[in-house]
Write a structure and sequence with these properties.
Blueprint (H helix, E strand, L loop, with lengths): L6 H11 L26 E3 L4 E12 L5 E7 L7 E4 L4 E9 L7 H6 L27 E3 L24 E6 L7 E6 L6 H6 L4 E5 L2 H4 L7 E10 L40 E4 L2 E3 L7 E5 L4 E8 L6 E7 L2 E2 L2 E6 L2 E2 L11 E3 L2 E3 L4 E7 L7 E5 L14 E8 L8 E2 L22 E11 L9 E7 L16 E4 L3 E8 L5 E5 L4 E6 L2 E2 L8 E4 L11 E7 L7 E7 L2 H5 L3 E7 L20
The structure holds copper (II) ion.
Amino acid sequence: MRVRLPIGLILLCLGSATSAFTQSAKPEICSRPAIGSVVAEPEDLRSQAGVLEADLTLRNGPAANGQTRYCYVAADGSVSPTLRLQPGDLLILHLKNELAGPATSPTAMRHHASTTATADSPTDPCLRGEMTAFATNLHFHGLAIPPVCHQDEVLKTTINPSDAPFEYRIRIPAEQPPGLYWYHPHIHGFTNPQVLGGASGALLIEGIERANPEVAGLPERVFVIRDQDLLNPDAQPVQTDSMPPPLLLRDAEGDILNTGTGGGKPAKDLSINFVPVPYPRYLPAGIKIRPEEKQLWCVLNASAITYLDLQMLVENKPQMLGVVSVDGVPINANQTAQKKITWQSHILLPPASRVGIIVKGPAAGTAASLITRTVDTGPAGENDPTRPLAAIAAEPNAPEPSVQLATNPTPLPRSNNAWLGAVKPARTRTLYFSEHPHDPQNPNSRTDFYITVEGQEPKLFDPQDTAPNIVVPEGDVEDWIIENRTRELHAFHIHQIHFMLEEWNGVPIDEPFLRDTINVAYWDGTSPQLPSVKLRMDFRDPHIVGTFLYHCHLLEHEDGGMMGVIQVVPRPAAESTPSTQPTPPATHR
Ligand SMILES: [Cu+2]
């Protein structure tokens, strides 16, 4: 699709061509490990005496193939470090924006007339609200922290390259469940190019061994799986059988559509801790582990659009993986049930989801690998074929991970909150995903992406119109039914809170944990019954009062408009909140 660049952007591109992008003597910005190299853990930035204060700089730069890479760089040079904190700690980040160059995407350009800040933009980054290709901000995905500027506010907060370092000052709630969270930019219209380019990092709330003694003493590792544009977009698939190569069609975003075969050219390449595993040969990264050693792996799918279905193979046989946490929340942390591990042979991870898994190293001398299996994303979805991520080598001298969980942890106190599943919802709402191609006959025509509260007019998210689509009193619990009226998967995410999956396509589910991101199945095009999830939404936490977002976490869809605004309004002081009451809940207005 032809895109017309605004004059300002053209001038900026020309200006930057001689500054940030062509000085060959400088070291490569956001350089990446070699294909096939051994996976290194991200560096840890750890809180001390209850405080983690750190400088982070967001940079970008061109790769040899012309793609734009993004990365966070800490003062010590570490790239996209893991922020490690304890519940109750203070996190102080000074974020400097050093974005430069021709860094925009056709997806973003289509939806936004302007990609550069205007001359009269507000000087206060908290009030600016101008989403441009060179602006950035931070979202702390999964944390139950206030949606206000300098904490976790992304509707207005925009930090420009000319700004001084911007301070984030966040108190991790004492009740924040121990597990894996993450940080990434959230500039509407430009989140996709920044995250796809690599702008993401892990945030780990330590102490899962206090919620689950079965992981006490285990070495802990962090793996961040990201997607990126294909390094070899013109290569033909390497066929491993006699199947004819599948017909490749592209959607309006230029992504290769789901072939439905499990093979063929993927829509995106993948990397693991930035080690690329590119199509078409998928030379795996290397993971070393001592033979039969048990480890806790904290895995984040930081992909912009790629679904993962993780599996570990030993001698080509799937291994059972012990899931101990999902989206940062330990399994059965607050219930009397004793089962704190669920064993699975493969784990679906939509974009933005995390999982903590107990993994056992293979016996010495056996071949093992970490793969992602194909995900059927629907006829309008992207092609996510089966492919390896890493070859796992069992070596007696493999280096031990730098983090080892406490061997004799103090158990976490039980939450005073009633289990979400036992609280009566105040009301039920229905929301639905829908898409509208401008030319239904042309799969390459522009598509608008919507998430709509039933009864309201479908409307593309507009950062200039932040009137809430949904208003909820603090303290309430609601049931939300999220329908998918499209022919591809979507991943529903809401900021600030976690929710409980109650029903999957109308079938009751009993999950003893919470999520902040959930896959919604695609519509087959004929069934009268639309695919849906029913979620119990928890607005009891007073920390989250304010205005924030819910959206699809497939970032092309989010940038394309599939996002809405919710406001949690404070409950009058005279009215007691039902947050600490057991069932039956207090009455609701
Ligand atoms: Cu979506």
